Amino acid sequence: MAGDAEPRGNGPMKEGEEASFFGALLDEAGDLALGSLFEGKAWVAPNPMVGALALEGDRIMGRGLHRAFGQAHAEEEALREALEAGASPDTLVVTLEPCSSKGGEKKRPPCTETILASPIKRVVVGLEDPDPRHQGEGLAALRRAGLKVLGPFPSPSLQALLDPFRKALSLQRPWVIAKWAMSLDGKTATHSGSSSWISGEQSLDYGHRLRASCDSIMVGYRTALLDRPVLSVRRVPGPSPHRFVIDPKLQLPMDGPLFQTSSIPTTVLFLEGQGERAKEFENQGVECLAVPPLEPSGSVLDFSKALGLLHSRGMRRLLFEGGGQTLAQLLDQNCVDQCMALIAPKLVGGKDAPSPLGGKGVQEMDQARQLSGTFRFDLGMDLLMGGFLL
Q1: What pLDDT shows up at residue 132?
Q2: Which domains are delineated in the chain?
Q3: Whether pLDDT at 292 is above 90
Q4: How far apart are CA 94 and CA 118, in angstroms?
Q5: Which one, of 386, 390, 349, lies nearest residue 37 by Cα?
Q6: Closest CA to 94 of 73, 70, 80
Q7: Which pLDDT value is given to residue 353?
Q8: How far apart are CA 74 and CA 82, in angstroms?
Q9: Quick one: which of 239, 294, 240, 246 has its CA closest to 270?
Q10: Contact, 221 vs 322, CB < 8 A?
Q11: How far apart are CA 201 and CA 342, in angstroms?
Q12: Fewer Cβ atoms within 10 Å of its own Cβ: the N or the C terminal residue of the chain?
């Protein structure tokens, strides 16, 4: 809550006291970015997790974090909260260098401009922006405008906040989130294919919020064929993402809901060499994109190239929603960045009931893929668990 910090007292701080004071505030801003898992880790990537504090004197009057991809940055939120509380903040503490670029793929105005339009006179920064396209430019712009800039003051905890962002900077494809719902015994459906609904109401709402936070969504052939999903945002307000379907041999029937809801674009990714069938799809108004196989004459798509095509079209955050065989192929090709499992307290059983991840799997437990930056919280009776593959 704004204004709840205890004032330090009267008189200027000494140099060592000031460093300790701002160090503690940077830790608090870092905890803010990390601690709000529901609105932070689950929604932000490939953007960085950032926390900010707006101070009037030495009292915290506004707190902010980057809550979701494409939404207000932490600096904007902290300043807005302080100003709405009637404060005149003079210091901004932020875990990451404020952004300074505009145009292109940017969805928000430069935070440097937001700061310069505010009463802020001093900015305390934890880390310099690792993006080489504008690294250090935000700090330089603030200094040129006459603001006092302290930092960067790096720490291991702040560095850890940026691990997913550093990976995202190295990618020439969308950030890929693999999400699935499963029973407590690890089944995504019964042996007969029944899967509606494994999750409870809160989990279903969460899944649609997650869809709305992405610009693209993808499923494999069997999921599209058997589940007949719509892949739209319905349970919460928000835009529906562009739908992509993996159909290597272009075998899906055209009467499926993915092809009947023309208000939401659908693109089919298929293996090169299916030209005649592709024309049939396109004659029905369905876009098809040819992708080379991973191996010559193989039946598995080269997902690096497939996702590269999506990246060239401006797709930056892709949600993958099944099935298990396609997820295994994505993992084998190192094309998954974040995993999220919605676990329902149900037991399904059955050796033939499907699980979230197919493929051959690893032979030894020490070969298992280890997630980092893990998080978990309750969604009604269900549990959400997730983490990053860095």
Answers
A1: 85
A2: 15-162 (3.40.140.10), 175-388 (3.40.430.10)
A3: yes
A4: 15
A5: 386
A6: 73
A7: 94
A8: 12
A9: 246
A10: no
A11: 12
A12: N
Torsion sign (Cα): 243, 249, 254, 256: negative
Q: Measure the CA–CA gap between 75 and 52, rounded to whole angstroms.
A: 6
Phi-psi region of 34 (alpha: psi -120 to 50; beta: other; left: phi over 0): alpha
- Judge if the upstream peptide bond of residue 197 is cis by omega within 30 degrees of 0: yes
Could you report the per-residue pLDDT of 105-137, keeping only the tens digit for each? Answer: 666 789 999 999 999 999 999 999 998 888 999
What is the total residue count of the chain?
A: 390
Burial 311-333 (b: 16+ CB within 10 A, else e): beeebbbbbbbbbbbbbbbbbeb
The pLDDT of 174-187, averaged and rounded, is 96
Residue 366: helix, strand or coil by DSSP? Answer: helix
Question: What single letter denotes the amino acid at residue 270?
Answer: F
Q: Which amino acid is at 282?
A: E
Instruction: Give the number of other Cβ atoms within 10 Å of residue 19's Cβ.
Output: 13
Instruction: Give me the catalytic one of 56, 75, 81, 321.
Output: 75
Q: Which pairs count as long-range contacts for 181-185, CB under 8 Å and 24+ apart, including other chains?
A: 181/207, 181/341, 181/342, 181/343, 181/344, 182/341, 182/342, 182/343, 182/344, 182/355, 182/356, 183/343, 183/344, 183/346, 183/347, 183/348, 184/343, 184/344, 184/345, 184/346, 184/347, 185/347, 185/348, 185/349
Q: Quickly tell me which residue has 């503690």 as its tokens.
A: 24
Per the annotation, the verdict on 75 as an active-site residue is: yes
Query: Are the CB atoms for 200 and 365 separated by under 8 Å?
Result: no
- Bond preceding residue 292 cis, omega within 30 of 0: no
Whose tokens are 């009931």? That residue is 353
End-to-end CA gap in the chain: 34
- The DSSP element (H or E) to which 139 belongs, if any, is helix 137-144
What does DSSP assign to residue 57? T
Copy the structure tokens of residue 172.
Answer: 């020439």
Contact 131, 88 (CB under 8 A): no
